[in-house]
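Tutorial handout. Part one gives the primary structure; part two gives the three-dimensional structure as tokens.
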Amino acid sequence: MVLVAASLPSESFSQPITAGSDSTQLYHEHYRNQYHFSPRRGWISDPCGFLYYEGQYHCYWWGCAESDDLVHFREVSRMVHRDVPRGLGCWTGCVVADPQNTAGFGSDAYIACLTVNDGERKNQSQALTVSHDHGRSFRYYDGNPVLDIGYQDFRDPTVIWLEESKQWLMVVSKTLESKVAFYSSPDLKQWTWLSDFGPAGRTYRCFECPDFFKLKIENGPMKGQEKWVLVVSVDWDNEQYFVGDFDGTTFHAEGLKQETGVYVDRGPDFYASRTFKDFDHALDGRVYSIGWMSNWRYCRDLPMTYGKGFWSVPRELSLRDTPDGWRLVQKPKSELTSLRGQQLKYEGRLKAGRTSVKDIDRLGNVYEAEVCFDTSASGTFGLNICAGGGRKLVVSYDTESHSLVVDRTQVADFRMEKFEHTCHAKVAPINNQLRLRIFVDKCSVEIFSEDGTSVFSMATFAADDQTGLELFSHDNGTRYRLDIWPLKSIWE
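Part two.
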């Protein structure tokens, strides 16, 4: 999806993200998340060009930020693309390193492969821009476009290097056909079509922002082996994934269903995620992703004063073999624990009705929680997050149906029909326990089930008086344990 027009004024800077002298309110604005990345000012949506190279993570939205741990960031450019012809918009894409100089731009080059949108011609094609300053500014390649099939909706390339065949592989969306196309190239400039995948899974409205990567299997007879995973954003508000094998030409998905896909995230606000491609070969097979925490139904209308949009917390990915097939496992990146302050601990038995958790109001909706409920006795129970002023985010669990429901309809400090949403997933208890890890930030909540196969991500936009936390139960007796850590701001 579109990110930024080429005519946007450029600005470069290289310094840690701090509340600087330009504004005493910078990073302290109303609804500014305190440990989720957002740019100083302006728009952010689809993550682009995620790579690990030269000892650090590089993150693009066609602005650029760098990070050593994906928790703390240095914003180094507001707009990296230069010399883009007038009338072309720089849309979603990726960035690669080319230490073998396959493209002829030099072994030090960072190369962006992105969609350029020609609004007048109603055409989308793939183009290159090139950086020789460690990925902080890119110049438009005069041989563009490098791939143009004359389509209006042909976009969002992910490019990876296949060591076995010494070729580059591009995965790009044919959006209106609900297909993903695979192309190969020896030099990033001349591309050969290999195959199409799809239509498959959920195909209503759109089929865009594909990512393609290998993941290790964490259990079962294939433990330690790898499978290919294809992630596609669909319907402007969600992501689905397919698991299978790639033979160098064609992706073969396993257990493919034409009618339904398997969702990456059960919440309404996780879209266009990208994984970090490891060009240093230093991550030991670990795969991390970050997604955009919004969707196109209402992203332009949200009440953010410093700009629009923010990204999720970083997640480490793996695969699990389950009776229902392959399942993506997502765990918050371990370095997030470096933000923790003094732990608060609670435990006991729930009483029928609501119980307020003491001392949470003062955390101002910036905290992490781990909650464990005993499911050995049947019942319905849960939490009210961002509670106050008659509003709340309701997280409820039913032991009979194993249904975990997250109800956002009452949480926001405004009325917007498109924003009201309820989501759910089947989450089986483990050893008679339901365990959840919850990240609450100024205007968002992310909920991870303990086994990592079900995640709920959503914007909240709670009012200033909605900083409470409540436990509730329909019956007496359910045992619980609750651990909470205030989280330090990454802006300070």
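Part three, for discussion. The two ends are 32 Å apart (CA to CA). Residues 341-486 form a domain with the Jelly Rolls fold (CATH 2.60.120.560).
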